Amino acid sequence: MPSRYIIDTNVLIQFPHILSRAGSRKIVIPSAVMEELSAHGHGGRTKGVSDLVSSSLGAGVKIVRAPDRLENDFIGSSSNVQRLSGADFDIARIAINYAEQQGLDAPCVVTGDRALAQFLSTRGIKSISGTEFIGESNNEPINKEIEESADKVVFSQKRYIISSFFLGVIASLLGSLIYSNLNLLISTITVWATMLGLPIMGIALFWYRENFRLSYGAFELCVGIIMSYYVFFPSFNYANLGLTEGIQILGGLYVMVRGLDNVGKGVEGTRLESLWKKVF
Q1: Domain coordinates of the chain in residue numbers?
Q2: How far is CA 252 from CA 132, 216, 223, in A?
Q3: Alpha-helical segments (H) within the chain
Q4: Which phi and psi (to 5°) does residue 110 adopt?
Q5: Is residue 151 a contact partner of residue 24, using CB atoms and an 8 Å limit?
Q6: Contact 168, 218 (CB under 8 A)
Q7: Residue 197 and residue 51: Cα distance in Å, rounded?
Q8: N or C, which terminus of the chain has less Cβ within 10 Å?
Q9: Do strands 5-7 and 126-128 pair parallel, antiparallel, or not at all (unpaired)?
């Protein structure tokens, strides 16, 4: 068994149950990972993970700062270095520092970051995924209290993801309903009400985006799809497509891309982030 297991940010977010293995394995969390957690995502989505790490310190989890210098520095020593983030650099430095200490067995980095894993392999340092760590330690003693807290963190993140997509779909359907009955709405309100209502609606949508980024991204994606589909309904005839219809389709595609961009920002700090980065 490696002397230390150094945990990456993406693994902590996706597999917080790893912390419950601190009694049987020496778990190290780089301080850069804690800083990344505190700044990761909007609305405190990773706060539960940070609090879980803090509560695990008494069980043996250690927070460690990266050394300022190494005997053999690695800047520019591999093409993969250019793909490492600031936190990745600190994780690599800590792992290499442990490996350089005489009489200490090699550490192991637990990460879902392929670039970091490839770089570590060039320095002879083992890396495994969160799934592999959980699988290896299934028969070892588990801190039940930390395990239960990790379950709550996972449940909270799943609830956030599901509710965000649900609200996004509902908001887009509501927007489609308003658009379909736009003439009726305009005929029943005054010009001044329209002039006042549009800026207020714009401010409200901005607040929605800033506070519920994932939900807004799902809403925007659905609106883009609906915008494009309106060109073809109720009569689906390619012969009727003209410049106006082509611009509307392009506008719908643009809104879809913007929606996906907001979804990508919205899943930061959630269990979906790792999958999103692998796909896109």
Answers
A1: 5-142, 154-279
A2: 42, 16, 8
A3: 9-14, 31-39, 47-56, 86-100, 114-122, 130-136, 144-180, 182-188, 191-211, 213-229, 243-266, 273-279
A4: -100, 110
A5: no
A6: yes
A7: 42
A8: C
A9: unpaired
pLDDT digits (tens, 9 = 90+) for 246-268: 888 899 999 999 999 999 988 88
Q: Is the pTM of this model over 0.85?
A: no
Cβ contact 230:248 at 8 Å: yes
CA distances from 17 to 79, 128, 160, 254 (A): 33, 16, 19, 40
- Check the CA dihedral 101-104-106-111 and report its sign: negative
Q: Which two tokens stand for residue 128?
A: 């495994």
* pLDDT tens per residue, range 90-119: 898 888 888 877 555 688 999 988 888 888
**5-142 falls under which CATH superfamily?**
5'-nuclease (3.40.50.1010)
